[in-house]
Amino acid sequence: MKEVYISGAHSGFIGGKFAEDIELHHPTFKVVKGDREGSCHNWPYIILDFASYGNYHNQKDVAKVYEANVIRLLHLLQHTNHIEYKAFIVTGTSSEYGKADIPMHEALLPKPDSFYAAAKTAGINLAQTWARLQDKPIVCIRPFSVTGPGEQGNHLIPTLIRGCMEGLEVPLVPHPVHDFIDIRDFISGVWRIVDRAKDLKGEIINIGSGKQYTNQEVLEMVEKATHKKAAVRTVDGMRDYDKKLWVADNFRLKSLGWEPKFTLQDSINDMVKEYVEQRKTN
């Protein structure tokens, strides 16, 4: 069986869901879950680097941010350099773009406004240079806000669902916007890139829906899906990294034949169903 090495699969939402997808739909592949140091002692056919640190507000140790997103990536690139893999996917973040007044496209210069975004930018630069100098099929992706069934419970949509279903008060800043991409569409986008990695060597590709929604609009979708009103406590003020425009220009990915299949309302509906099922079994 051909091995697919996935970092971030032990506890990460994206890595874990990708491992599930392979186990369910790709029986000829064997998932190998990566370690925290970036070591790779096997001979993978595909490398998917989803591990990160610093994307949560309480992960503020700058040294750890760079260790996880740059040094660990360097180790993984070094340890696999002798392997003739089909694809090596390096994951950045849409936060690398910083504040923008147009849909974020891959040719925009990064303007990171957090240490996490800066570290991801450094990792992407490293990966692109490695792809060019070592002639490796490495492709860099910039996910936007990945959501859907299985998303971490402390994120916006699961928090709103829990608030509606359990009658809990939820603090909400109504105005920030995000481009939400369903995890299933994200996975299909990555597979599309993997299949073309040889031709896309060194490129950066956005994975986003191409639509943005305010937190207030997300709340209204959750209320529609749950048929319940949330007890919202409106909080004023936006965080430093919140934006009034945060949406992907996803033309490059669409040019590879990809199209998103799930609307944000679809994602929320499925997340509510998952919540109900979990409540039944607990």
Describe this structure in words.
- This protein is of the alpha/beta class.
- The chain has a domain at 2-150 and 179-210 and 247-261: 3-Layer(aba) Sandwich (Rossmann fold), CATH 3.40.50.720.
- The protein has eight helices and twelve strands.
- The chain has helices at 13-25, 62-79, 115-134, 156-166, 183-195, 215-226, 251-254, 264-281, and strands spanning 2-7, 29-33, 46-49, 87-91, 138-143, 145-147, 169-172, 177-178, 180-182, 204-207, 213-214, 231-234.
- It has a six-stranded parallel β-sheet with strand order 2-1-3-4-5-10, sandwiched between helices. Strands 6-9 form a two-stranded parallel ribbon.
- β1 (2-7), α1 (13-25) and β2 form a beta-alpha-beta unit.
- α2 runs parallel beside α3 (115-134).
- It is globular and about 55 Å long.
